Amino acid sequence: MAKRRIKPAPRARRRVDQLGLRTAMADRLLPTLVGAMSFLAALAIAGTLAAATLASHWQGDTGSALTVQVTDPGDPAVSGGVTRLQAVLSTLKASPNVSNLHQLSADEMNSLLKPWLGEDVTKLNLPVPAVIAASWNQAGPPDALASALGAVAPGTLAETGAAWASRVAALTNSIQASALSVLLIVALVAAAVISVATRAGLAQRREAIEIVHGLGALDSDIAGSFAMRATRLAATGSAIGALIALPVLLWLARLAEPFAGVLPQSNLPVLPMPLMASLPALPVVAALIGWGTAQITVRGWLRQLA
Question: Edge-to-edge, what's the strand order for the sheet holding 157-160?
Fold first, then answer.
């Protein structure tokens, strides 16, 4: 009679769950909550980076913009036999800190003042000053230039966007502070969620843990088992949250392109490199929070058994 060959039993592919943590710490609620926290963290990081990028763009454009208003531009200047506007233009061209001179045309003035004064400003019979836009190539305010312009055409105003640039900087700082506060709150909430889930697992497996602990199991072994379980669940949930946040971030990046002066190069927007690097870091941070929170929670609970 032929002997039947007995196949060896297959090796267990998963580690033995002696404490029953797969049941005590379910793989649905905790990853879902951590994923939501990761989604919010991704949006907060994107807001911080976007605020810094937009502020840098606006501050550079606004801070270097020079606007000169010449009242009664057709009247004669103080000297030289030219009009006030011509004298101002000559002074601006001679200044080494001024470039890209451009006098606004009548159509540009009408377009600029249309929301307040209507279609055609000339029909109102109001004295409209000539406006000259230029670039200011110096860090400080144009006080010396304003004095020189006032000498040839009294009453001429020259100002830069430094005041607006400082307001943009203050707004950026407040937005970044708010985003960092959101990140801190998200991290604390994630830690609280993991701590509650760990305590629920401890309560559910209390008898098994007491038996294993009474037989000589070390606190580090028990805490390590819970920490590994919390780490896996937190990292998984955070990765899912980051993936869900990716299309939302791409949509927001497309909406922000006009404000940054960026023309769409393709149908798909491109996220900045710091943001792309921060998304893979979210699961790592979540795993560290899960591991540390579970370790602290379990060790504190085990001390009460002694």
Answer: 98-103, 130-136, 65-70, 157-160
